[in-house]
Automatic annotation (TrEMBL):
Pfam families reported in the protein's UniProt record: HTH_3
Annotated source species: Paenibacillus chibensis
Name the record gives this protein: Helix-turn-helix transcriptional regulator
Record-annotated membrane-spanning stretches: none
Keyword flag DNA-binding: yes
Length: 100
């Protein structure tokens, strides 16, 4: 979970809000004290458009590319340059940072 938070630049509270749990629950997941329930895993996976296995399996987050070109999958039929995709990614991060 920590790797997911770092990838999307989230606080424990941000992830807790997405999963519908407390930030203490997220902390417990990250320290290995507790495992997230399937409902929380499903909410997180759906929010980020990733597979539940990315969250459950060891090394599952390694399957997610850091390359902004993966964004292109959301723009079927569009041709964007790497610079444009980088800009889209930065804008998405900005939008996420304004969520409350």
């Amino acid at each position: 979970m920590k790797k997911l938070r770092e990838k999307f630049d989230l606080t424990q509270q941000d992830l807790a809000d997405i999963a519908g749990v407390t930030n203490k629950a997220v902390s417990a997941w990250e320290t290995g004290q507790k495992e997230p329930r399937m409902g929380a895993i499903e909410k997180i996976a759906q929010h980020f458009g990733i597979k539940k296995s990315n969250l459950i399996e060891d090394g599952g987050m390694n399957d997610l590319s850091e390359d902004p070109l993966t964004i292109a999958a959301h723009f079927d039929g569009e041709d964007f340059t790497k610079e444009e995709l980088d800009e889209i990614l930065e804008y998405a991060k900005y939008i996420k940072s304004r969520r409350k």
